[in-house]
Amino acid sequence: MGNAIDNFSLTDKVCIITGGGGLLGERNADAISEAGGTPVLWDIKIDNARKIAERINQERDVEAGVYQVDITNKVSVQEAFRATLHSFGHVDILINNAANDPKVELGSDLAWSRFENLALSTWVFDLEVGLTGAFLCAQTVGAWMADRGGGVILNVASDLSVIAPDQRLYRQDGIDEDRQPVKPVTYSVLKHGLIGLTKYLATYWAHKNIRCNAISPGGIYNGQPDEFVTRLTNLIPAGRMADKNEYKSAVVFLCSEASAYMTGQNLIMDGGRSVL
Question: Does the structure show a pLDDT above 80 at 107?
Answer without folding.
Answer: no
